[in-house]
Amino acid sequence: MSARKRRSNDLQEKTQTSAPCGLKENVPHQRWNFHFDLWFCLTLQNWILDFGRPIVMIFLPLEWFPLNKPSAGDYFHMAYNVITPFLMLKLIERSPRALPRSAVYLCIITFVMGASIHLVGDSINHRLLLSGYQLHLSVRENPIIKDLKPASLIDSFELLYFYDEQLGHLMWYIPFFIILFIYFTGCFTKAREQKKIPVSGWLLLGPSSLYYWYLVTEGQITELFLLTFLAMVVVVIIKQRKGLSPDSNGLFLFCSFSVTVLLVALWVIYLWSDPVLRNKYPGLIYVPEPWSYYTLHIKQDH
C-alpha cells in the first residue's frame, strides 16, 4: 500500500514539473522576469576580467609580478575561467524552458578547457610583448623571433600562437556562443508584458554590445558570431510564425548582437585602407584586432 502511494506521488510530481515540447509548467514568475542581476554580473566581469586583463598588466609595476611568475592578468583570467561558466549555468537554470542538459554541460567543459589553453598561451604572449614582440606582425616577421637560433624555435613559437589565437579561441568561443544560442531558443513567449526590455536592460545594452564587439574582433571569431546571429534570426522567424516572440531576456540578447554587428561593420570601414593591418589579415573577412591597432598606431606614437 505504501509503495503504491509512493509511486503515485512520484508520478504526480513528474506531471507537475514537465510538459510537452520541453516547456516547464508552474514556472516561477522570476524565470520570466528580466534577469538584470545575471546580465549585469556577466557584463561587469567580462569588462573587468577579460577586457581589463591586458590593461592591468600594462599599468601595474613589473616588479610586482616577475616574468617567471603569473601576472595580474593571469589571475584575472583564472577568475574569468571560473566565474563565467558559473554565471552561464545560472542563466540556463533561469530559462523558462527545459533545455538539453547534456549539450550545456559538454559546452561548459569545452569552454573551460579552451579558456585554460588560452590562459597559458596569452600569459607567454604578454611576456613576449614586454620583450618587444609586435602584435601587428606575424610570428616569423617579428624582430625578436625571426633571428632565433636554432630556426626550429620559430616553429615552437608558431605552435604557441596556434594554441593561443586559434585552438584556444575556438574551444573557448564556440561553446560560449552555443550556450547563448541554446538559452535564446528558450526565451519566447506569447505574453505581451514579457516582451519589453526594462530601463535597466537598455542601460546595459551599450556596455554589453561594446564588449561583444571587442570579443568578436580581438578573438577573430567574426564568422562564428555571424553564424550565431543568423541562427538567432532564423529562430525568431520560425517562432513568430507560431505566434511567439522573444521575451525581455531574449530581446536583450538579440539587440546586443544586432548592435555588435553594426559596431564591427564600422570598425572594418574605419581600418579598410590600412596597408599594414591588411597584410596581417589577408583572409576573405578582414576584421583587425584592437590590440594590433594599439601596438601599430597608439603605442608607437607614444
Quaternary state, please? single chain
User: What's the overall average pLDDT, rounded?
Assistant: 85
Q: What topology, given as strand order, has the largest sheet? A: 1-2
Roughly what fraction of the amino acids lie in strands?
under 5%
Overall structural class, as computed from helix and strand content, comes to mainly alpha
How many runs of DSSP E, i.e. beta strands?
Answer: 2
> Rough shape?
globular
Characterise this structure.
A two-stranded antiparallel sheet has the order 1-2. The protein is built from 12 helices and 2 strands. 71% of the residues lie in helices and 1% in strands. The chain is mostly helical and 302 residues long. Mean pLDDT is 85; it is low at 11-23. It comes from Pagothenia borchgrevinki. Keywords: Membrane, Transmembrane, Transmembrane helix. Residues 1-21 are annotated as: Disordered. InterPro entries: CLN6 (IPR029255). The chain crosses the membrane at residues 104-121, 170-188, 197-215, 221-238, 250-272.
